[in-house]
Fold Actin-related protein 2/3 complex subunit 5.
Amino acid sequence: MAEAEKFMGSDNVEDILTKIENKSLKIESLIKPYKPIEAIKTALEGYPPQDEQCKFANWIGVRKALMAIKDVVGILRSLNPQYYDILMKYVYRGLSTGDRTTCDQCLKIHEKLTEKAGFGCILRSLADTVNTI
């Protein structure tokens, strides 16, 4: 997760937003040929800094990757367990939007992710107050 270090290493919001925009473009380029595993891995790499503008910009890219998932079970089977907790954090972020389409997709992911990763994944994602998204 070297991307996290890139985000954290820069204090300039404009530099961080540029990196997030590049990441978002990469996610889009992976979604078009339907490479959902690569898109979701790219989306989940690196936490943005605590700046709300950066968090929101990062969420836009992650949401694109989440909404492109058609086979949730297949994605989770292919995804490294190190990503489960952060994925759960983004699922809760999606549920908090109130957007019906986003919430429906996030509920599907939540169900399958809980089956795969267990209830500990939920607890860890809610209890982690340092790495907020």
Q: What stands out?
A: Residues 1-8 have pLDDT under 50 and may be disordered. The radius of gyration is 14 Å. The chain has one domain: 2-127. The domain at 2-127 is CATH 1.25.40.190 (Serine Threonine Protein Phosphatase 5, Tetratricopeptide repeat).
